[in-house]
Amino acid sequence: YIGEDGLWAGFKMNNAEWMEMNDDMEMEEETGMDMMLAVGCSKALAFDDKLWFEPHFGLTMPAATDAMTLAMGMGFRYTF
Question: Which tens digits make up the pLDDT trace of 11-33?
């Protein structure tokens, strides 16, 4: 969490494995790192600040392709 305004950022890396065909038309196992970066904010909604709404923007960079994905998401979080 960044400061006291409810902003947050997250970074996640996962080891990825997939099968890919080589030039000899044989399947080979490839490995790499999937990466995800997300930035969002938290807003308390109800129940004495126990229910939170968290919209965010995310950038996903999978190892198996050269394509990056930019997405918007949202979630609800309940704290005890």
Answer: 999 888 888 888 888 888 888 88
Structure tokens at 55: 């919209």
State the Cα–Cα distance between residues 16 and 63, nearest whole angstrom: 7
DSSP state of 49: T
| Structural tokens at position 52 | 């939170």
Retrieve residue 9's tokens: 């950022």
* 12-30 exposure pattern, b = at least 16 Cβ within 10 A, e = fewer: eeeeeeeeeeeeeeeeeee
51 and 45 in contact (C-beta within 8 Å)? yes
Whether 78 contacts 51, CB under 8 Å: yes
